[in-house]
Amino acid sequence: KQYYNPAFVGLTEGFQMNLNFRKCWPKIPGQFETLIASFDKSLWNITGIGGIGLITYNNVEGAGELSTTTIGIPLSSRIRVTKNWILQFAIMPQYQMRKINWEKLTFPDQLSPYYGKYLQQSPGFQYNNQDNISFFDLSFGMLFSYESFPGKQDKARNKKLTGGFSMHHYPEPSMSFLGNSLYHMNTSEGK
User: Strands 32-42 and 66-72: what pairing?
Assistant: First the structure.
């Protein structure tokens, strides 16, 4: 839940831990795997505090050509509006690392209509050997929660409704391996 909205941190009393693994299209060459691990602890005994947590995820795309690893620490603030309604705000500073393997990629000027892939390295593409980038990032979240019988242990009778919104990558960080310039490549075959 923290991945989608950092305001979920500390919403439920106690300690929570989540582990998610996803592998898309296992029969197709290449891989698309995501691993997310998170935990959070509610801090309701401190007035105005919702909770604190830790989230880390790793995403690998296309047989290791592109991988992304992120570590974030979500912090939430809790406001009890009425007996039944809770409003919770959160901020999540994150550190993100991305890595690309240029040698495993094929560009249009490496291909020939007659021979297929005929060049090992693209003559028109200069990537300046930058295969790792890292940057700080911010996410924000807000949610509201309604409980018909707050604090009751009778789960069958206690109705709960939760909703909210979140904003990720604000301000939008530069995630480019090529710097700020747009990629322009010479696609003509050998001269």
Answer: unpaired
Q: Which residues pair with 169 in a beta bridge?
A: none
Letter string b/e over residues 153-162, b meaning 16 or more CB atoms within 10 A of that residue's CB: eeeeeeeeeb
Q: For the segment 50-94, what is each residue's pLDDT rounded down to a tens digit?
A: 899 999 999 998 866 889 999 999 999 999 899 889 999 999 999
Query: Two tokens at 82?
Result: 């009425």
**DSSP tag of 6:** G
What 3-state class would DSSP assign to 7?
helix
Between CA 174 and CA 136 the distance in angstroms is 10
Q: What is the DSSP letter of 109?
A: G
Single-letter code of the amino acid located at 63 = A
For the segment 121-133, what is each residue's pLDDT rounded down to a tens digit? Answer: 666 566 666 788 8
CA distance 98 to 143: 30
> What are the E-state strand segments in the chain?
15-24, 32-42, 49-61, 66-72, 75-80, 85-100, 111-112, 116-117, 132-147, 160-168
Distance CA 180, CA 131 (A): 15
- What tokens appear for 158 in the block? 């206690």
CA gap 9, 59 in Å, rounded:
22
